[in-house]
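[stage:ingest] chain + small molecule (magnesium ion)
[stage:ingest] validated
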Amino acid sequence: MAKMYYNGDANAAYLNGKKVAVIGYGSQGHAHAQNMRDSGVEVVIGLRKGKSWDKAAEDGFQVYSVGEATAQADVVMILLPDEQQTKVYKEEIEPNLTNQAIMFAHGFNVHFNQIVPPTNCDVLLVAPKGPGHLVRRTYEQDAGVPALFAIHQDVTGEAKELALSYAKAIGSLRAGALETTFKEETETDLFGEQAVLCGGLTALVKAGFETLVEAGYQPELAYFETLHELKLIVDLMYEGGMAGMRYSVSDTAEWGDFVTGPRIVDARVKEEMKAVLKDIQEGKFAQGWIFENQTNRPVYTAIKARENEHLIEKVGKELRAMMPFINQGKKKEVVGSAK
Ligand code: NDP
Ligand code: MG
Ligand code: MG
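[stage:predict] done
[stage:export] tokens:
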């Protein structure tokens, strides 16, 4: 088994007397900043004026421009959207670097050569394997979200100590951290979200929903069957793996799982997954996404509008409005960005 790192493997005192600038206060930013502050680390926030700035100030942080926050820090954690990072890095972070450690929560820009940090800085990543709001929520529950860490440049010889101390301060070492490389983190993260977690899942749910509705079944029923119930199934897998889920469902469901699952996700799907992975590895996906951003996202905008019009979204909105308990406690958590 791969070596896992837990709380006992980190020198918590490493960040004592050091100042961490968290750049961005969105999904990840607010969680890292608040968790570190609660762990006794000195944190300042770097932002542009706007919604996140006001939120961070309201939450009691000292907020500066990105350049000012960078200049005064020992460690700079870049938690801006990946597609904004190159520009902000070039214009506001790089000119203010002396020898700070530069950190990321995703390797995209360094791995695909969009950000080339100076050779005199430590460069590393600590990437929690979960949404920012859970990074904060689990920390408050004395739990944590597991993380990956990777060292790209180790000038001081202390990069690993920093990575582990940081991972501990955001609560991730309660769940465990695994050492990786920028390449492995970037490629697997992109593959996971495209093929399974986001892309594969939404396509599966939509295809199931459409099949039922096109066959004349009620859309509301199809929504419950293919989307709503998914959470209950995923929770069981999260707690006990596939066997744990299969233990809880009926034997009929389990038999259907065994014989029908491979008919749905068949050899052709796996071949396509391999092609998707190849596009990621060869930088084709990155190139397309960088170009899409440089041209003001024409394809993204068109697809998003079409997706939002899908019947499953209309039906779901109405049904969820009648189940206010689903989103209870959520409002308070959603900060900063449009998320
Ligand atoms: P968000 O979109 O949630 O937040 C981005 C933050 O950056 C906002 O506070 C936004 O402020 C600020 N920002 C955007 N543009 C600028 C700018 N030009 N100048 C200054 N501030 C700006 O980002 P995420 O937290 O989702 O992502 C951050 C990083 O974490 C990425 O590298 C991502 O891959 C990684 N990551 C994200 C995960 C997640 O859960 N979302 C999971 C693991 C890793 P404003 O209000 O002004 O727009
Ligand atoms: Mg991910
Ligand atoms: Mg990702």
